[in-house]
Specification:
Distance between the termini: 11 Å
Oligomer: single chain
Number of helices: 14
Strand order of the largest sheet: 7-6-14-15-16-13-17
Bound molecules: uridine-5'-diphosphate
Number of strands: 18
Radius of gyration: 22 Å
Structural class: alpha/beta
Largest sheet: 7 strands, mixed
Helix content: 25-40%
Length: about 375
């Protein structure tokens, strides 16, 4: 087996930081580079002049059922007790997303809500999650009405804003993230472990990287760095968390992504809305509004919100946020993977081109480290 003097981790988001730490704890030297001016990638947050912690790239709520992941991160941060809920404005009524049994009573007259609830409980197990595309395939007249209602009011317009496509034109795993929930549980996630890092995500990543074997270089582009330092990366093992198409100069075509941008506003009042996230499935051009002070219960006479707008990713203009899984994009990805040499590993949302939540990104880094050491 080849001897590697050093490990080069490209990208300093949660995936890059975790793999760097595992290698460092294992006694290896690690250089982490990132072209951004800050660590933590898209989970970057900062405290603003109002004392409110802002998630620069949109709300991040940590949740997992994986005890290993939870315990790993708890070495570097404490979490508060926070159970995320999402409110949606449907026909001017504030209700809960995912659509659940409580939602019925918010949006329909009581007798209709009761009839629908009874039918749902006769047709589905309590506490089950039914993806909307499956929920639509029902014969009962009332349940068909309900399915059409939820499809139209919750999914159709939100999804077309978010993806530029209808729900049945995108990977079904995406809309399955927000199922119809046969339950009275109003939470967005049911995971055993949930919370927000008490001192923010950036601090958590800083603590992960804080190890004598780890060196971090920001403002450092991989291609420039490697051409300027050919000796330094000789015999380097590379962990690449950027987009694989860029690394190989787009020779098999671009991997598409959706991007988002945020319009921040500060308001001189205690709260702007009733909840940390309010979705606007049917109105306006933005998909949702984030109000940041809710996450860590920050006290200020002002409040900061961000309206989230979705758009296509364009290289050089905005950031990559969401991979777009289709058979075609998977084929492109596979072609790139075939190009890879033995000393390079891909991970993270961009490196694996997978819609990972934070816990899945950590899990992937933990598993990759295991594979390398046992393989
Ligand atoms: N979705 C929707 N309406 C909603 C919330 C979600 O149609 O009110 C769909 C939409 O297609 C979205 C997907 O469900 O992209 C996943 O939503 P999630 O909140 O998990 O997205 P994220 O927070 O990762 O952007």
């Amino acid at each position: 087996m080849m001897k590697y003097d050093k490990n080069l981790v490209v990208g300093c988001g949660i995936s890059g930081a975790v793999i760097a730490r595992l290698l460092a704890d294992n006694g290896e030297n690690v250089l982490v580079i990132d072209k951004k001016t800050h660590i933590a990638g898209n989970i970057y947050d900062y405290k603003d002049e109002n004392g409110i912690v802002i998630h620069k790239y949109g709300s991040h709520i940590f949740h997992t059922n994986n005890k290993k992941v939870w315990q790993f991160l708890k070495r570097f941060t404490s979490f508060n007790i926070y159970m995320h809920k999402v409110v949606a404005l449907i026909d001017g009524i504030e209700t809960t997303i995912p659509f659940n049994l409580n939602t019925l009573y918010d949006v329909f007259p009581k007798t209709l809500a009761q009839r629908l609830e009874e039918k749902l409980l006769n047709n589905f197990e309590y506490n089950t999650k039914v993806p909307i595309l499956k929920f639509q395939t029902q014969n009962d007249k009332d349940l068909k009405f309900l399915a059409d209602y939820i499809y139209e009011k919750v999914f159709l317009h939100y999804t077309s804003k978010q993806w530029g496509k209808n729900p049945d034109e995108i990977d079904s795993a995406v809309t399955s993230r927000v199922p119809v929930f046969i339950s009275r549980d109003n939470r967005y996630f049911q995971d055993k472990y949930q919370g927000i890092p008490l001192h923010g995500y950036t601090k958590m990543v800083e603590n992960i990287l804080n190890h004598p074997n780890i060196e971090v270089k920001l403002n450092t582009d991989f291609k420039n760095f490697t051409s300027e330092n050919p000796d330094l990366i000789k015999n380097c093992r590379i962990f690449y968390t950027g987009s694989i198409d860029e690394l190989y100069d787009y020779k098999f075509g671009e991997l598409p992504y959706r991007s988002v941008h945020f319009k921040f506003e500060t308001h001189n009042r205690e709260f702007y809305q009733s909840n940390a996230v309010v979705n606007y499935p049917c109105n306006y051009d933005f998909t949702r509004i984030h109000e940041y002070k809710y996450y860590l219960n920050d006290k200020s006479e002002n409040t900061v919100i961000a309206k989230e707008y979705s758009e296509e990713f364009e290289n050089g203009k905005n950031e990559r946020y969401y991979p777009i899984a289709t058979l075609e994009t998977q084929k492109i990805y596979d072609k790139y993977i075939e190009e890879k040499s033995e000393n390079i590993y891909f991970l993270g949302r961009l490196g694996d081109y997978k819609y990972y939540d934070m816990d899945k990104a950590v899990e992937r880094a933990l598993n990759l480290f295991e594979e390398i050491n046992n393989g």
